[in-house]
Specification:
The protein has two domains: 83 residues; 111 residues, Periplasmic metal-binding protein Tp34-type (Immunoglobulin-like), CATH 2.60.40.2480. With 206 residues, the chain is of the alpha+beta class. The strands form two sheets. It has a five-stranded antiparallel sheet, with no helix packed on it. Strands 5-4-8-9 form a four-stranded antiparallel sheet, with no helix packed on it. 40% of the residues lie in helices and 34% in strands.
């Protein structure tokens, strides 16, 4: 019995030594995948939800924040207008917001689009859709006009394709495919160890 027990320990120790390098490699792959994800998400944020292109801008007494999803084809803009807290002000009903865009290269003339006001409970938001014909840097000019506030805000945004290229997507997925392969290998080693551990018990039972 002592010999069998020692043999079992030796086998289990050997299995642990087999799995340990896989776990270390898996941790390295996870770290690389996390780094790639953190680096790439800001660059590809437009593929998912809108992201802020303007924050903490002042237009008269109001605070302005702009979120956008500037895709080639149709880009969306969400303009949030908030009165300062405790000011007692409200966004006037007659406020009009327009979004003007032009390629930074100025290969096209300025195009202006009206917005519509969204009926939201916690804040006032204006929305519009803007067509973009090409991937490049675009200048965005937003004007505000009302009985109590007038002003404008400017920024540049990179307009990019709605989908990643085939090879970029493959490179992005490689770390996760590696994690899957390592997990499958570790699971196979673990199943083999369990089978070898059950074999001596079956012989003893006989």
């Amino acid at each position: 019995m002592m010999m069998r027990f020692h043999s079992s320990l030796t086998k289990n120790g050997s299995d642990s030594r087999e799995i340990a390098p896989l776990l270390v490699a898996a941790r390295h792959v996870i770290a690389v995948a996390f780094f790639v994800f953190c680096v790439c998400v800001p660059a590809w944020a437009h593929i998912g939800p809108p992201y802020p292109i303007m924050q903490n801008r002042k237009v008269g007494p109001f605070n302005v924040e702009v979120w956008s999803n500037p895709d080639v084809g149709t880009g969306s803009f969400y303009i949030i207008v908030d009165p300062p807290k405790g000011s007692g002000l409200s966004v006037p009903q007659n406020m009009k917001v327009q979004v003007s865009v032009q390629p930074v290269s100025k290969r096209l003339p300025v195009a202006t689009y009206n917005t519509w006001r969204e009926k939201l409970l916690d804040h006032v938001e204006f929305k519009t859709l803007v067509p973009f014909d090409k991937q490049e840097m675009w200048h965005v000019h937003i004007t505000f006009s009302s009985s109590t506030a007038n002003g404008a805000a400017d920024t540049d945004v990179p307009v990019t394709p709605t989908l990643l290229g085939r090879w970029n997507l493959l490179i992005f997925l490689l770390p996760f495919l590696g994690i899957g392969m390592l997990w499958f290998k570790a699971a196979s080693v673990k199943r083999g160890r369990r089978k070898r551990a059950r074999a001596p018990r079956a012989r003893i039972a006989q």
